[in-house]
Design brief:
Keywords: Cytoplasm, Disulfide bond, FAD, Flavoprotein, NAD, Nucleotide-binding, Oxidoreductase, Redox-active center. By secondary structure, this protein is of the alpha/beta class. The chain is 31% helix and 27% strand. The chain contains 13 helices and 24 strands. A hairpin with a 2-residue loop joins strand 17 and strand 18. Helix 1 packs parallel to helix 8. Bound molecules: flavin-adenine dinucleotide. The site of flavin-adenine dinucleotide (FAD) has 37 residues, from strand 2, helix 2, helix 3, strand 4 and helix 8.
Length: 465
């Protein structure tokens, strides 16, 4: 039998949940190991948040440069090299993943590339890779194995004609035409990316709006903006009858009684994710699951004593910052640094242009809950900074308690929305009222003034509308 070492914490999975957990335990002076099957950084750094944002930056810049004239500039003979755009994105991922490996060293985290399995409570086995057969004894185990892409049943994914985001992120050739199934954040971001570089894009969503979790007005504006960009957007539409040929995919778009045939060079499936526990648990280790996700208590412990879980593997929302929050909370709790907290409020962001960001309740959710709410709205067309930057599409909308001014939710569509949302996140966390946001002096001219003006609009006191 291979040698065993005793750890305070063994983490399985090196994504934003796993790597943050391991680093935090290292900071606390604990003996910690992290086992990662592929590369430190997980989906987020290697196949998710970071490489998509690198691609989107190129897309956004290319779009902007085409509008050079609006700024009094001339940019003639503009062109792009899509393979280089993708190469840059892969490079950014590699750089960030290396950074995590450096942080592991700095915080004395023992990093194993391989597949980890909870073989019994208090025991982890490495079942694949260079360290295969090694046993790690652990006072605590944290499962952070994340999710994998959900696939359309019956459709063969060959990674070229039919892809998930993972293959798309490494594909060096821009497809001439693409049909994207699913208009959640991932589908929407790829639609913007491909269209920005000139591909013919059809974006299909089964639900009544693009970005189904976002505020209805925000989704409507994004829908219109995407159509203006030349994306064919179909909501309330199902994709059926897929035929994958040598050079194209054909399918039917079904909306009510209407059926339309569509052909595209590539199909990108972006219909969500499902839990990934493949090989992570020995058959004798059976933590309680809920729809395939690990069920955890308020301290992030599963039903198996000493085995904890955080991140995508404990269910939605599937977001990197939520994964990290959960993992840090779990580890701090395990080692007696405060009471673990479950996630209540979290921002959700989509990095197309215009960007979309939100936190808390949508107006519809407030209505459905029967809350006595007020809405304050401020358009970027009335923001000096937005107009000066020629980025005046969009608005800020804030939903508050009609009596107390408590902030229920904030919704932003427009330039830098994903950066701006942090202010409302802090306001909600600190239980600030909408009056307090209104009274806070915001620098002029900045886009952030629109957050203050939306707050003021709730009180009927906005100056610029
Ligand atoms: C295209 C795309 C874009 C996204 N963009 C954003 C975004 O902009 N913002 C955002 O917040 N979120 C985004 N996400 C979601 C985000 O990536 C996830 O929410 C986040 O990565 C979850 O972190 P995690 O640590 O729980 O899991 P993961 O990051 O998935 O990490 C799990 C890790 O565990 C490893 N693993 C699995 N099983 C084992 C095993 N048995 N042994 C060892 N290792 C194992 C996997 O290899 C993986 O590296 C995006 C996702 C995708 C796919």
């Amino acid at each position: 039998m291979a040698e065993t070492t005793q750890y305070d914490l063994v983490v399985i999975g090196g994504g934003p949940a796993g790597y943050a957990a391991a680093i935090r335990a290292g900071q606390l002076g604990k003996k910690v190991a992290c086992i990662e099957a592929e590369r430190a950084g997980g989906t987020c750094l290697n196949w998710g948040c970071i490489p998509t944002k690198a691609l989107l930056k190129s897309a956004e810049l290319f779009q902007k440069m085409q509008k050079a004239e609006a700024y009094g500039l001339r940019a003639e003979g503009l062109s792009f090299d899509f393979a280089k755009v993708v190469e840059r994105s892969r490079g950014v991922s590699g750089q960030m993943a290396k950074g995590i490996e450096f942080l592991f060293k700095k915080n004395k985290v023992e990093y194993f590339v391989g597949r980890g399995q909870v073989s019994a409570p208090g025991m982890v086995t490495i079942t694949e890779g260079e360290h295969k057969g090694q046993f790690l004894r652990a006072s605590h185990i944290l499962l952070a194995t994340g999710c994998k892409m959900r696939r359309i049943p019956g459709l063969e994914y060959d990674g070229e004609r039919v892809m998930t985001s993972r293959e798309a992120l490494a594909a060096p050739r821009l497809p001439k035409s693409v049909v994207i199934v699913g208009a959640g954040a991932i589908g929407v971001e790829f639609a913007y990316l491909y269209r920005s570089f000139g591909a013919q894009v059809t974006l299909v969503e089964m639900l009544p709006q693009v970005l189904p979790v976002e505020d209805e007005e925000v989704a409507k504006l994004l829908h219109r903006s995407f159509e203006k960009l030349g994306i064919a957007v179909h909501t309330n539409t199902r994709c059926e009858n897929f035929r994958v040929g040598k050079n194209a995919v054909t399918l039917d778009l079904v909306s009510g009684d209407k059926k339309t045939a569509l052909e595209a060079e590539v199909l990108l499936s972006a219909i969500g994710v499902e839990p990934n526990l493949d090989g992570a648990l020995a058959p004798s280790v059976k933590p309680e699951l809920e729809r395939g996700y690990l069920k955890v208590g308020d301290d992030y412990q599963t039903s198996v004593k000493g085995v904890y879980a955080a991140g995508d593997i404990i269910g939605p929302p599937w977001l990197a910052h939520v994964a990290t929050f959960e993992a840090l909370s779990a580890v701090n709790g395990i080692f007696g640094h405060g009471v673990p907290r479950r996630v209540k409020n979290f921002p959700g962001c989509t990095y197309c242009q215009p960007q979309v960001a939100s936190i808390g309740l949508t107006e519809r959710a407030a209505k459905e809950k029967g809350l006595n709410y007020k809405v304050g709205k401020f358009p970027f067309t009335a923001s000096g900074k937005a107009v000066a930057s020629a980025e005046s599409e969009g608005f800020v909308k804030v939903v508050t308690d009609a009596k107390t001014g408590e902030i229920y939710g904030a919704h932003i569509i427009g330039a830098e929305a994903t950066e701006l949302i942090a202010e409302y996140g802090l306001a909600i966390e600190m239980e600030a009222t909408v009056e307090e946001v209104h009274r806070t002096i915001h620098a002029h001219p900045t886009l952030s003034e629109a957050l203050m003006e939306a707050a003021a609009a709730t009180l009927g006191e906005a100056i610029h509308i």
